[in-house]
Description:
Shape: elongated
Number of strands: 0
Radius of gyration: 19 Å
Strand content: under 5%
Distance between the termini: 40 Å
Amino acid sequence: MTVVLWAVLAIAVGFVTIVVKARRAMPPRPPLPPDVELPDTPLQRASRWSLGTGLFLAALAIGVVAVHGPEGMMANDNARLLFTALVVAVLVALSGPGIVVAKLRTAGEGATIDERDRTILDRAPAAQGLGTILTLAVWTVGLMERFHASRAVPLDYVFLLFWSCLVVYALGLPVGILVGYRRS
């Protein structure tokens, strides 16, 4: 299996782990009557926007690696800078819920965080660490399989490993928040 496929698998494992762990961290809620629908909170809207934008930008970054290959991307300054800019943009986009929380905490009395929001915020990051560790584990297995004979992993792949772990960690908060609102 090529290293790029291992990278995609690593990120997918991290993402699925975050979703599953976040679902398990949230307490089950009693069902609402069929005619009652809760409105979206500012935190929920920010998380949805943040996740959609972050995943789109991450797909573009993966596309840069897929087109150039890890070695080619690192050898081409423009491709490497584009990839880095896209990943930094992903991290900025995924920080949206944190910005909304900071604004709500400093806002006036009409825009406070209620009890449900606090519960969700307390439990939303529960899966960030586990998702990141599993991403790192899949990367390690993939890199060992690919470069076992040479006993040396090129720095190009370590660069990708670092950024993918950061992205999976950053994905944890908006995913955890959205899962929390579905469960609460």
